[in-house]
């Protein structure tokens, strides 16, 4: 039980149901989760997705150069989203300014111009898949605790995406300490 604004305890199941009914919640999670695959390792290390609202993906460029590069990359990125995620309409990709976090050197292909270290908040490596047994356990737990099968499926998908992201972040942090 969780205390509501009025101090009265509320069941977490009611909150989950309302959260899953929010329009665009899963679409936003899918768009953000696919960003490394859509943008590629170099661009995804320089452009961090911040939010997805009303068909627009807002990304944080880690430098003014990458803010300008985003303008050139946007049409290709939108086309790639259309191929990988046809169920979600990504109509635009825009830059939002915010203070960058962390430092990371970006690897370029052979013959590329070396860049100075840049700031990044997330790993450039792809987000790992979870073992099938873990995925099955998450789906079974959601099905057992949420009555609506559609809500249970959506909740399981969201938990799987969050777990994959946590693993990638933990791996990136371990790599920085080495």
What does this entry look like structurally?
This protein folds into two domains: about 30-105, 2-Layer Sandwich (GMP Synthetase, Chain A, domain 3), CATH 3.30.300.180; about 125-178, no CATH class. It has about 180 residues and is mainly α. α2 packs parallel to α6, α3 packs antiparallel against α4 and α5 (about 130-145) packs across α6. It has helices spanning about 10-20, 25-35, 35-45, 65-85, 130-145, 150-175; strands at about 1-5, 10, 45-55, 55-60, 90-95. The strands form two sheets. The protein has a three-stranded mixed sheet with strand order 3-4-5. Mean pLDDT is about 80; it is low at about 110-115.
Briefly summarize what is shown:
The protein is mainly alpha-helical and 178 residues long. Helices cover 53% and strands 12% of the residues.
Keywords:
mainly alpha, GMP Synthetase, Chain A, domain 3, three-stranded mixed sheet, 12% strand
Write the layout of secondary structure elements.
Layout: E1 2-3, E2 9-10, H1 12-21, H2 25-33, H3 35-46, E3 47-53, E4 56-61, H4 64-84, E5 92-95, H5 132-145, H6 149-177
N-to-C order of helices and strands: EEHHHEEHEHH
Question: Which fold does the CATH topology of the largest domain refer to?
Answer: GMP Synthetase, Chain A, domain 3
How many structurally independent domains? 2
The biggest sheet, with number of strands, parallel, antiparallel or mixed sense and barrel status, is: 3 strands, mixed
Q: CATH class of the largest domain, anyone? A: Alpha Beta
Strand content: 5-15%
Helix content: 40-55%
Number of DSSP strand runs? 5
What is the topology, as strand order, of the major beta sheet? 3-4-5
Radius of gyration, in angstroms, nearest whole number:
19 Å
**Secondary structure tally, helices:** 6
